[in-house]
Amino acid sequence: MKQLLDLDTFAKTFADKGYNESFQTEAAYGDKLKDSINRFLEACKNGTNKPLYADRISLGTYLEWNGEDKPRTYCYMRVRHEDGKFDVQSMDVERKDRYGNSMKKLELTNLTTKEIPTAKEVLAQVRDTPKQQIAPRKRGFRM
Q1: What is the pLDDT of residue 50?
Q2: Burial of 53: CB neighbours in 10 Å, binned 0-12, 13-18, 19+
Q3: What does the angle CA 17 – CA 117 – CA 41 come to, to the nearest 5 degrees?
Q4: With pLDDT > 70 as the criterion, what percentage of the chain qualifies?
Q5: Any idea where the domains of the chain sit in the sequence?
Q6: Of 39, 55, 129, 44, nearest to 89 (Cα)?
Q7: Label partner for 107 (CA 20 to 30 A): which of 79, 99, 113, 120?
Q8: Are the C-beta atoms of residues 81 and 56 closer than 8 Å to each other?
Q9: 66 forms bridges with which residues in the sheet?
Q10: What is the pLDDT at residue 142?
Q11: How many C-beta neighbours within 10 Å does residue 11 have?
């Protein structure tokens, strides 16, 4: 059975695995993971926002961003949420080129927070590393 974690433990587990960047909860509330979720839950409590699904929320973060003109890697997670406790259900990671075209995609399902791979492991799986470099062709005159 999957174990739900309180927000502090949930955020610490993500930080330990290298997910230290800003997150967005339900495509808004950009901040560190714990602060982003807290702001979203506060907005739900005030009635200014509501989750799309009653028992889960979505989180998103860039795992790699080097500017508009470089490839980037985005991670989207579905997180189970019950009574202030959280657990990751699935993770989608997509690497896109500078024009927004998908280069490689990774889908991980049936996860728990303890089972998610580190950010470096995920990046290594979606990066395109050439296996063989082609030597440049010599140019010159032929007679």
Answers
A1: 83
A2: exposed
A3: 65
A4: 87
A5: 5-126
A6: 55
A7: 99
A8: yes
A9: none
A10: 64
A11: 21
Annotate the chain with DSSP letters as a single string: ----EEHHHHHHHHHHTT--S-EEETTEEEESHHHHHHHHHHHHHHTS---SBTTEEEEEEEEE---TTS-EEEEEEEEEEETTEEEEEEEEEEEE-TTS-EEEEEEE-S--GGGPPPHHHHHHHHS---SSPPPPPP-----
Can you tell me the distance from the alpha carbon of 95 to that of 113, in angstroms, rounded to the nearest whole number?
Answer: 22
Q: How far apart are CA 82 and CA 19, in angstroms?
A: 22
Angle at 112 between CA 109 and CA 113, to 5 degrees: 120
pLDDT tens, residue by residue, 25-59: 998 899 999 999 999 999 988 988 888 888 899 99
